[in-house]
Amino acid sequence: MRLAVLKERRAGENRVAATADTVKKLIALGLSVAVEAGAGLNAAISDADFAGAGAEIAPDAASALAGAGILFAVQAPEPEVRALIARGTLLVCTMNTFGDPTLVEALAAAGIDGVAMEMMPRITRAQSMDVLSSQANLAGYRAVIESAGAFARGFPMMMTAAGTVPPARVLVIGAGVAGLQAIATARRLGGIVSGTDVRPAAKEEIKSLGAIYVGVEDDETAKQTGPYAGQMSDAFRAKQAELMAATVAKNDIIICTALVQGRQAPVIVTSEMVAAMRPGSVVVDIAADAGGNCGATVPGELIVTPNGVQILGYRNWPGRIAVASSQLYARNLLTFLTTFWDKEAAAPKLVETDDIIKGVLLTKAGQIVHPNFQPVAVAPAVPSAA
Ligand SMILES: NC(=O)c1ccc[n+]([C@@H]2O[C@H](COP(=O)([O-])OP(=O)(O)OC[C@H]3O[C@@H](n4cnc5c(N)ncnc54)[C@H](O)[C@@H]3O)[C@@H](O)[C@H]2O)c1
To answer: d(Cα 211, Cα 174) in Å, to the nearest integer?
Structure first.
């Protein structure tokens, strides 16, 4: 069976879905691997590296896909590329199903069996395939590094003969995978770091990294016991806004990472709070893909506010650290395929009763199989009595 890896075509996407190392392991499974020329360049993997690992370098997407039964990608291919994919192909990638509500139907219509890696269930067995975690971890790191580049003072306290430079004060909003890595990175750079979240479990995690916890604790936060936060009430948001108004103004750098699954990101730092920050402060909003946690964020842009605050609202933070993120993403995909590989048939076997497959498989043999995407049944019209 042939597996194809294409060059990612979406703006700002520097990652690639395989590395020379994973290509070798895919070939060891019994696959032949075709990589489109230039696919790894933005992630520092040359065609020669892929060829050295045993891949065929195909001059374009059509020739990479010719005869392929599996396609590995970072993001779902756009319609022009989808048109080149044969019916029955297994597509393993992240699917922007909220941004593109027609995608699942389009995959079913094209007979593509679609696996959405970002829907991987958060169970122990699936941890090594969890692309959200592997990518968020690097995004959190990168956010702090870019904030340090933008902040014209430095993170650590510096005591010199010419005087003392105070340490940067950093507030991390949302202490999940990205936020905890951001806290750890900012601490290592020498900042004075605080963190906030709505899940009680996050409080101890923030403190265990040596950061200061700030947050509203009430009956509503006590109920946030799952791995994901729920949408908070207006009453909670008002209390959080009061605390944040005081906290944001005291910090030099704000790293925003708060997300609520399947929804717009909550706005936690308002434009008024940004207006009260000191000139030279920096806000990095890695929630920008989901709208952003900062009311002044312009998704995809770096802006400077009238009071001299830089807001880095770039999209796709994992794509800004593409060598490492490709390496981890490619391992996540390799592990997925290896887990569901039928050695005798030398083909994938996606057992539909398996919890992982139930979570990630969107379409199969021309049908939408995932419960979240079933077409809504329309009740038959009741004939009027008249
Ligand atoms: N396999 C597993 O069991 C597994 C895998 C990954 C993560 N997890 C757990 O899930 C947690 C969260 O994962 P994530 O980082 O993907 O979450 P996420 O990306 O959905 O959200 C990021 C953080 O934002 C926080 N948040 C949401 N709304 C907020 C608000 N209004 N104010 C402040 N903070 C808010 C969330 O509580 C979360 O900690 C992790 O810390 C981890 O404990 C478990």
So the answer is: 13
Determine the pLDDT at residue 386: 44
Strand partners, 70: 3, 90
**CATH placement of domain 151-316:** 3.40.50.720
pLDDT single digits (tens) 24-39: 999 999 999 999 999 9
Instruction: Look at ligand 1, atom 36, and give the residue with the nearest C-alpha.
Output: 229
Question: Which tokens in the block code for residue 328?
Answer: 């981890």
Q: Is 268 in the pocket of ligand 1 (CB under 6 A)?
A: yes
Rounded Cα–Cα distance for residues 12 and 316 (Å): 7
- Check pocket membership of 127 for ligand 1, CB cut-off 6 A: yes
The answer to whether 97 and 373 are in contact (CB under 8 A) is yes
pTM value surpassing 0.85: yes
| Domain extent listing, the chain | 2-129+321-367, 151-316
Q: CATH fold of 2-129+321-367, please?
A: Rossmann fold (3.40.50)
